[in-house]
Amino acid sequence: MADKALIVIDVQNDFCPGGALAVSGGDTIVPLVNRMIADAGHVILTQDWHPAGHSSFASTHAGKNPFETVAMPYGEQTLWPDHCIQGSQGAAFHPDLEWTKAELVIRKGFRPSIDSYSAFYENDHETPTGLAGYLRERGISELTMVGLATDFCVAYSALDAVREGFSVTVALEACRAIDLGGSLVAMTQRMKEAGVSLV
Ligand code: VGL
Ligand code: ZN
């Protein structure tokens, strides 16, 4: 029997109001996410987890401001305010998130020179996090994704999951977006085209 998992993406203080890279309404999804966690067979969390001075931080690049882009060896990278620094309060899960049931917490973005939006691959789209192998080894093939942000970490995780052969649903009601330069519309379209079920 195909097993299912709920993947809760980056519900961390820095992506909630008051945080370094606050997503509008990011905290409002927590009660719904908690209900979904309670109902889920298996729960996996992701945690954005950057070292200080990470290459995705605008502050690391002289003369660059947050939300500008820079050319990296692996392609164009959006620059962000310093966020989710390993061990900081900003990197911690939202205090109301019921995370104790999680069977795995997968951390991403810990390599200084490469960012990772997706729970499956770093932004070069070829360095794996190990999540696909973990899920396959456990016989989990159906994934529901929720969390922050819809148009970055959730979307890239969903696209990679489809590419890896998983059946993927994104529960939009339990996600919130950054929406940078039309990214929400663009990534929603890409998810639809890829066969992600958006509900
Ligand atoms: C994210 C930008 C930078 C996300 C993480 O969780 O969507 N976005 N790091
Ligand atoms: Zn990040």
TrEMBL record:
Pfam families attached here? Isochorismatase (PF00857)
Q: What class of enzyme is it?
A: hydrolase
Which Gene Ontology molecular function entries are recorded, alphabetically? nicotinamidase activity
Q: What EC number is given for this enzyme?
A: 3.5.1.19
Keywords, A to Z, come to: Hydrolase, Metal-binding, Pyridine nucleotide biosynthesis
The similarity comment for this entry is: Belongs to the isochorismatase family.
Name of protein: nicotinamidase
Gene coding for it: pncA
